[in-house]
Automatic annotation (TrEMBL):
Acylhydrolase that catalyzes the hydrolysis of phospholipids at the sn-1 position. Pfam families: Lipase_3. Belongs to the AB hydrolase superfamily. Lipase family. This is Phospholipase A1.
């Protein structure tokens, strides 16, 4: 079943990704991301085998070759590529491709680092994802980027953990309903490195990161300070 031509039921997806279950039948993933992951194209020598089958074969080969070592599996991707990384990581864990053949009780941890990742599936998909162990997804997003909010339809849901690239806020965030408090030395001058966020009282010029840094000088402790005149001797 296709919803609005954008998502495909997990029962169809699981022809490649997993065995369909009663719970899985209520899960959906984006049809476009799914097709990129599973389809082939005979017009190109690079796509006669699907991305899914190429990666699975490669992982099985590497796991067999290095089964006596401490292993981990990592995927990364940007934007549309990060949706494939998410599907790939989920596929590997769901189907047990992260397990060593003669050590079925030992699972290799799988992680996907996804930069500006659109949403992959609905709430049902996120429930399946959340129940998988040894699977981690870190979504790395810029605060004002709209791509991670796509598709905008309300039935889509995020998976994994999100890291918003707003380092000054991250440095002082203590949790929901707790006051902002800097506990590490995150130099406030960095807020104006390429912008104009700080009040003039802090005496940090805007967009100072140029060839000569507009008289901003780095101190021995790593902080930056405006030194636009000679000090009195």
């Amino acid at each position: 079943m296709v919803i609005g031509d954008k998502v495909v039921k997990q029962s169809n997806l699981m022809a490649y990704v997993a065995v369909a279950t009663d719970e899985g039948k209520a899960s959906n993933v984006h049809k476009g991301w799914y097709s990129l992951y599973t389809e082939t194209n005979s017009d190109s020598p690079l796509t006669t085998i699907s991305a899914r089958d190429q990666v699975v074969a490669g992982i099985q080969k590497q796991v067999a070759a290095y089964k006596d070592e401490e292993l981990s599996i990592a995927f990364d991707g940007h934007s549309m590529g990060s949706t494939i990384a998410t599907l790939n990581a989920t596929d590997i864990v769901f189907n047990g491709y992260n397990k060593i053949p003669d050590q079925p009780d030992k699972a290799i941890p799988v992680t996907a680092f996804c930069v500006a990742c659109p949403r992959v599936g609905d709430f049902g998909f996120s429930k399946v994802f959340a129940k998988l162990t040894n699977l981690h997804v870190l979504r790395i997003n810029n605060e004002l980027d709209i791509v991670p909010k796509y598709p905008f339809d309300i039935w889509y849901s995020d998976v994994g953990k999100e890291l918003k690239v707003h380092l000054h806020t991250v440095a002082g965030y203590q949790g929901v309903f707790k006051p902002f408090e800097l506990v590490i030395n995150r130099d406030k001058a960095l807020l104006n490195k390429g912008a104009d966020y700080l009040d003039d009282k802090y005496r940090v010029v805007s967009s100072w990161w140029t060839e000569k840094n507009k008289s901003m000088v780095q101190n021995d402790d790593g902080t930056w300070e405006l030194k636009d005149s000679e000090e009195d001797v």
